[in-house]
């Protein structure tokens, strides 16, 4: 039994595992439980890419989604226009930062958690999950919306005001797409996307950020224990955006909660998302995710009181 209560990250891969001698100990999630008694979670990397991104060896050596190799010119071009790399000054100045990651799960329906969600300092939403019309269950506040081209809202009127748009780059085309968006250039439909993508995001450049791929890497290999596959995207080794957002919050917030998380595979006909009729069985078709491994990871966090699950779906 270790000092972490028996939970340690998966054994490092023997060949080429990123920073296997310096990766953040899993213990940090067990010793920091709330804002009143403990200092902030450890911060091994900035939340968003900034103009020093080339100095980060851990992400420089890997291609997307686990790094930025080959993307230097695109990222430099994007950051030269956005010029903002942090949260808002008001959020950065908070002594105790309370964050909630709002998942898209059907478990959110009819829970009336809206007011509790809006009470958090930072409300993170994922992909195109709508707010309008669902405020009673999901709240009305959005601080960050994390997505990738195929997951982004396609109608400009759907975007919330006063929120930051955050790209999670899972492939090189995603960075190229964001450059189009930032420079207000025409998005080409032939750029290798697997479905139609947004051609416009109604955000000014200073409202746009790039999520540090460190958190995708940390979630996949250190916390969840997905196959390393030589640092390349492969079958079952890409964490869902929800787990990536939780990992980001563990390093950037003092208190972390989730809502709308949890896939109950024993109910294949239950709604997969709170806003549409797609059924739970659809998630079984995922090639890139390992839902069972992620569920185990999240359950350990809840059991250790590291995160709070408002909708009790994990």
From TrEMBL:
UniProt key word Secreted: no
A cellular-component GO term for this protein: Golgi cisterna membrane
Keywords: Disulfide bond, Glycoprotein, Glycosyltransferase, Golgi apparatus, Membrane, Signal-anchor, Transferase, Transmembrane, Transmembrane helix
Catalysed reaction equations from the record: a beta-D-galactosyl-(1->4)-N-acetyl-beta-D-glucosaminyl derivative + CMP-N-acetyl-beta-neuraminate = an N-acetyl-alpha-neuraminyl-(2->3)-beta-D-galactosyl-(1->4)-N-acetyl-beta-D-glucosaminyl derivative + CMP + H(+)
InterPro entries listed in its UniProt record: Glyco_trans_29, Glycosyltransferase_29, GT29-like_sf, Sialyl_trans
GO molecular function, one term: N-acetyllactosaminide alpha-2,3-sialyltransferase activity
EC number: 2.4.3.6
Membrane topology: Single-pass type II membrane protein
Protein name: CMP-N-acetylneuraminate-beta-1,4-galactoside alpha-2,3-sialyltransferase
